[in-house]
């Protein structure tokens, strides 16, 4: 049996699914809580991002408003910082924390932070692997082609590498964010405690994503008879 109807799949994935649900609840709860607490400085997420960028000689990087809840991201290809409406416009602890975090990625890019460079380089292949690996592996099992299954597993391995590289990238961005907020005086010590809680909750989602990718890869290997098991 395979995937959705395979008991082994659910046995292996259940702890990861629970971790993912907990991480999602934590980040939503933390963001909601600290989105209701305004900062003493009164600056919005967009203003905080622009000031941090200017303070680091990156004032040429545009900060744009993008639709979608927590859709905040830094685009290293177009060199643009995009913030969701809740972060871009609001002057709350959550807003400046998330904005500073995304600004941290821009700082990484400017400083040639190697994990970010590597993640950007393998992102296209990881995207292909995420979309096609399952199809290739399932088809390989259907036609009993171990070679095709191995190709799919190799492709999915790039997804795992991408998720693992993402962890230090995100943690480092959060560290840069906290340093920039504190150094610029954009948040008080009490507000920084809230920023840390928001960013720590967000970091847990990346841990869950990496765990999910690793366990899925292990499942593929077991079912292919390449790791502690057999496909029969």
Helix residue percentage = over 70%
Average pLDDT over all residues: 93
Catalogue the unreliable spans: none
Count the strands?
3
Taking all Cα atoms into account, the compactness measure Rg is 20 Å
Major β-sheet, in short? 3 strands, mixed
Number of helices: 7
In the sheet with the most strands, the strands line up as 1-3-2
Structure commentary:
With 232 residues, the chain is mainly α. It has a domain at 3-38 and 93-98 and 112-223. Helices cover 71% and strands 4% of the residues. The protein contains seven helices and three strands; from the N terminus they run H-H-E-E-E-H-H-H-H-H. The protein has helices spanning 7-34, 45-55, 85-88, 93-110, 114-142, 146-184, 189-223, and strands at 63-65, 73-75, 80-83. The protein has a three-stranded mixed β-sheet with strand order 1-3-2. A hairpin with a 4-residue loop joins strand 2 (73-75) and strand 3 (80-83). Helix 4 (93-110) packs across helix 6 and helix 6 packs antiparallel against helix 7 (189-223). The protein is elongated and about 65 Å long. The termini are close together. The mean pLDDT is 93.
């Amino acid at each position: 049996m395979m995937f959705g109807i395979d008991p082994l799949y659910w046995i292996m994935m259940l702890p990861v699914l629970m971790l993912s649900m907990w991480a999602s609840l934590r980040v939503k709860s933390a963001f909601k809580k600290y989105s209701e607490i305004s900062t003493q400085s009164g600056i919005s997420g967009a203003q905080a991002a622009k000031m941090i960028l200017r303070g680091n000689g990156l004032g040429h990087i545009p900060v744009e408003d993008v639709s979608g809840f927590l859709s905040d991201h830094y685009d290293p290809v177009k060199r643009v910082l995009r913030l969701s409406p809740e972060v871009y416009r609001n002057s709350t602890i959550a807003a400046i924390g998330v904005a500073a975090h995304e600004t941290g990625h821009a700082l990484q890019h400017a400083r040639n932070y190697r994990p970010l460079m590597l993640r950007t380089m393998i992102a296209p292949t990881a995207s292909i692997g995420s979309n096609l690996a399952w199809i290739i592996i399932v088809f390989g099992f259907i036609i009993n082609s171990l070679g095709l299954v191995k190709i799919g597993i190799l492709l999915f391995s790039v997804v795992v590498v991408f998720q693992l590289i993402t962890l230090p990238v995100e943690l480092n961005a959060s560290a840069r964010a906290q340093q920039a907020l504190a150094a610029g005086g954009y948040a008080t010590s009490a507000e920084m405690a809230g920023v840390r809680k928001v960013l720590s909750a967000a970091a847990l989602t990346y841990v869950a994503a990496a765990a999910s990718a690793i366990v899925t890869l292990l499942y593929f290997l077991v079912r292919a008879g390449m790791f502690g098991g057999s496909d029969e």
